[in-house]
Amino acid sequence: MAKPTAVAKIKLQYFRSKICTPMKHKLVVQGLGFTRLNQIVEREDTSSVRGMVAKVPHLVRVVE
Asked: What CATH number is attached to the domain comprising 21?
């Protein structure tokens, strides 16, 4: 049996409110799994997640 490969992870922080932003930005923040301000979540480091972060760089930051 082959061992499963380790999946790269990325930590994201929701640091600025989505109030008064377009509905698409609100849906991106919700899609990333954020429910409250200053929350940090860990997601797989895929191109789709990176693309979502690129759409709302003023609301979400990558934490090292």
From this structure: 3.30.1390.20
